[in-house]
Structures are given as structure tokens and as C-alpha cells.
Design a protein that fits this description.
Blueprint: E1 24-27, H1 35-39, E2 46-49, H2 59-65, E3 68-70, H3 77-92, H4 95-103, E4 120-124, H5 128-137, E5 143-147, H6 154-160, E6 162-164, H7 167-173, E7 176-179, H8 193-196, E8 203-207, H9 216-224, E9 228-232, E10 252-254, H10 263-281
Parallel strand pairs: 1-2, 2-3, 4-5, 4-7, 5-6, 7-8, 8-9, 9-10
Helix pairs in contact: 3-5
């Protein structure tokens, strides 16, 4: 049996609910929960983030109070993986350019399109999304290389058709580089001018992780000069500054932080969130706890 519950939308709004009675808080993707707000919730015991990213939560403040924090890392891995392949195909096949030309009444006879099959696909971060992406690349017959600080087992590498390389080698070798790392101190600005300068002419960089992983200042001149192509789903500020030169550059494809936001993924987020809150209320330890992990930036 579960205890009686009071479920309140936007409980932190003044007068909505007594703050000293909130013991479970569910956060949506972009809700900030800094330390000063956590201090106002003396009864808080569990925070469920209804998304994969949890960098909006002050984990240090939660640890100091023994507040458990969990995310939902299993809901949108397939959705993001599909979006990455979509982005790569759009840029490889020049689909965005062809669509624009057709809408202008033009009828191009030749294109500079490329197959995905046979390309070297580099995956940075072999967590759930990285594995989901590698699985979906198998039918395309890519040569898939990856880098991660924690390697899968040799058996899983063979099953997913993966070859481990160091990070500079990945950027030198890959025709497409896709980023799937969390934002922590070690990954902030990880994709810098040095790594970007190693990319093949015309190679594609896809970022569906966190914007701060990439030094956009180093990306801009390379994209403007057509040296690399770029697909972004995440930005330092959202919405971004649309006057940014990146949005005028050719060979680019942009989406508004929706890589994992399919209807099916949203249904999975809701289901996993409810199940995990019920686990906590039943006295069980929540799944997918992140309060022991390093503080996100």
C-alpha cells in the first residue's frame, strides 16, 4: 500500500504548497534546482529528473543533505541514435540543400551526395546512446570506431562492430563524429581547436550531447570555410542567438534540442518517472541514481 499523496503542479510557486512538506520533487528537463532552492525544502528526500540530463540539479547540495537524485537514462537512447543517423544522412546526401532548391523552383541534375555505407563513423562516448547508435549503424556497414574512458567488454565490441581508438585518432580518421558524453569538468570544451583541426576535409560533426562539450569559437571558421560540416541539436543558450554566423553557414543542419523528444520517448520518460517515484514511496532504492556522480557543470 502507498501512503496518501498530495500531487501539486509547480509546487515551488509562492503559496502553491507548504515547502516544508515536499519530500519528493519531479523535475522536467529545463527546470533549474540550485542549492538555495534546495535549502528551502527541509523535508526533501528524493528528486526524480524526468529526463536524461540532470545538470540543472545542484548535486553537491543534495549530497550534503543525503537527498537521492535519479534521472531516466533509458527512455530516449533509441530516439537520439536515430536522430544522429538522420543528421548524418541529411548532410551526406545534401538533402537540406536539395529541398531548398526544389522550393525555389530549381531542378538540380547533379548532387555532391555520399553514401553512409563504407564511411568511418566515430562515436565519442559509448554509454547507452553510443551503444544504441552503434547497433543501428550495423546495417549501414560503416567502419565504426569509438573513444570512451570506460571500454565495453571485448565481446560487446565484437557484437557492435566497434574498434577502440584514442580521441585524436578518432577525429583524424572519422568521416562522421558523433558526441555522446555527459557535461562534467573533464568534458567541458573537450572538442577544441586541436581536435577539430585534425578532422578530414568535409567531415561531419554531430552534437546531440551538451553544447559546452564543443568549443564553438573554434568550430565557426571551419564551418564558414566549408572545411567541416556541422549538425547541432544543443546550444549554449536556448533559444540561441540566431544572428550567429553558424546559422548562415552552408553544410549545416540544426534542430531545437529535440533529438530525444519523440512521442514514444516522452511516453517512456513518463512511465519510468512514475515507476521510479513509486519505488521510492514503497521504500525501495530508486533506479538510475546520479547523486553519487561528479557534479555537472
Amino acid at each position: 500500500m502507498l501512503p496518501d499523496l498530495d500531487i501539486v503542479e509547480e509546487p515551488l510557486d509562492p503559496g502553491k504548497f507548504p515547502l516544508d512538506q515536499i519530500d519528493v520533487l519531479i523535475l522536467t528537463t529545463f527546470t533549474l534546482l540550485p542549492g538555495d532552492v534546495i535549502e528551502r525544502l527541509p523535508a526533501l528526500k528524493f528528486i526524480q529528473v524526468a529526463s536524461t540530463g540532470y545538470d540543472a540539479v545542484d548535486l553537491a547540495a543534495c549530497r550534503s543533505r543525503g537527498i537521492r537524485v535519479a534521472n531516466v537514462p533509458v527512455a530516449n537512447s533509441a530516439s537520439v541514435a536515430e536522430h544522429v543517423i538522420l543528421s548524418a544522412l541529411i548532410l551526406l546526401r545534401r538533402a537540406h540543400q536539395l529541398d531548398s532548391q526544389i522550393r525555389k523552383g530549381e531542378w538540380p541534375l547533379l548532387t555532391d551526395a555520399h553514401d553512409l555505407g563504407g564511411k568511418v563513423f566515430g562515436i565519442v562516448g559509448m554509454g547507452r546512446i553510443g551503444r544504441a547508435l552503434a547497433t543501428r549503424l550495423l546495417p549501414f556497414e560503416t567502419s565504426t570506431i569509438y573513444y570512451d574512458t570506460v571500454r565495453p567488454s571485448p565481446e560487446e565490441e565484437r557484437r557492435l562492430g566497434l574498434t577502440y581508438v584514442d580521441l585524436p585518432t578518432l577525429f583524424e580518421s572519422a568521416d562522421i563524429v558523433s558526441l555522446h558524453v555527459p557535461l562534467v569538468p573533464a568534458t567541458q570544451g573537450m572538442v577544441n581547436a586541436s581536435l577539430l583541426g585534425r578532422m578530414k576535409p568535409g567531415a561531419i560533426l554531430v552534437n546531440t550531447a551538451r553544447a559546452e562539450v564543443v568549443d564553438l569559437g573554434a568550430v565557426r571558421p571551419l564551418v564558414a570555410e566549408g572545411k567541416i560540416h556541422l549538425a547541432l541539436d544543443v546550444y549554449p543558450e536556448e533559444p540561441p542567438d540566431f544572428s550567429d554566423s553558424l546559422f548562415q553557414a552552408p553544410g549545416t543542419f540544426y534542430t531545437p534540442h529535440v533529438a530525444g523528444a519523440t512521442r514514444e520517448a516522452q511516453e517512456r520518460f513518463v512511465a519510468e518517472t512514475v515507476k521510479n517515484v513509486l519505488r521510492f514511496l514503497q521504500g525501495k532504492d530508486p533506479l538510475y541514481r546520479v547523486d553519487h556522480l561528479p557534479d555537472p557543470q
